[in-house]
Amino acid sequence: MKVVVQRITRASVTADGIPSGTVGAGLLLLVGVARGDDETDAELLADKISRLRIFSDENGKMGKSVVDIGGEVLIISNFTLNGDYSHGNRPDFLAAEKPPRATMLWERFVSRMRERVGRVETGVFGADMQIDCLLDGPVTLQMDSELLRKGKQP
User: Fold this and answer.
1) Using one digit for the tens of pLDDT, what is the confidence trace for 38-69?
2) Is the CB of residue 143 less than 8 Å from the CB of residue 16?
3) What is the chain's percent helix, strand, coil content, to nearest 5?
4) Cβ(1)–Cβ(45) under 8 Å?
């Protein structure tokens, strides 16, 4: 499972032309489920992200998590995170999990984030979405559950 984590001032999503979620200061998470991912991947990433200290503390250092600041989270499904662009100029998405299983794992990730963070909004899995956000910093991280399982980071 891959997640792009972006620190935001605000964000909103429209799914198939209908407003779906709006949040204030916190995180925008783009989540891609890969073939072979399981519930452990969803839980590892949700736990790590909820504790990730990327917000300023009283000393101006990145010392606080989204939970510490009472921040909000907007979660968007994004199968294109698993795109393979190594052959030619059109990516393939063969590494992305099939929709039924991907939906279940995405929902597990969302559920785990809701257990950890006060306010979590989402887009609509598999929908055509437009995202409006104001990045803060910008602070953007790529996270991969495979690396967390191995205890490594890029």
Assistant:
1) 999 999 999 999 999 999 999 999 999 999 99
2) no
3) 25, 40, 35
4) yes
Residue type, 39: E
The answer to whether 25 and 72 are in contact (CB under 8 A) is yes
Helices marked H in the chain — which ranges? Answer: 39-51, 99-116, 145-150
Name the pTM for this structure: 0.95
Helices 99-116/39-51 angle, 10° precision: 30
**Tokens for 63?**
């010392």
Rounded distance between C-alpha atoms, residue 55 and residue 74, angstroms: 16
Length of the chain in terms of residues written: 154
φ/ψ (deg, to 5) at 7: -80, 130
